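Standup notes
- DV: blocked on the single-chain target, sequence here:
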Amino acid sequence: MARQIVWSANAQRERLEVLRYWADRNGSTRYSEKLDGLFRTALRVIATNPKLGRPTSDPDVRLKTIGDHMVFYSYTATEVHVLSVWHQKRDPKERPY
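- DV (later): unblocked, structure below
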């Protein structure tokens, strides 16, 4: 059974920042749309297989690498909670998990 995907306000803001960055940088939304599709596809897979992502230092949080980004999430029997979207080139000392 697939779990419902729930984006935290923080993760939603970070995702939109990433998509806007690429749209502004490229002068087109084409790549942003592709990247958003990759996020959504990966999360649909995680919704049915939540242990797919790697464990983090927090035992309740896992991460899935999607391109150059890491999506941090936790899950319950009925939901996947997306906690953060993090670009891998950002300072790892600031990483949330």
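- Follow-up: The longest strand covers residues 79-87.
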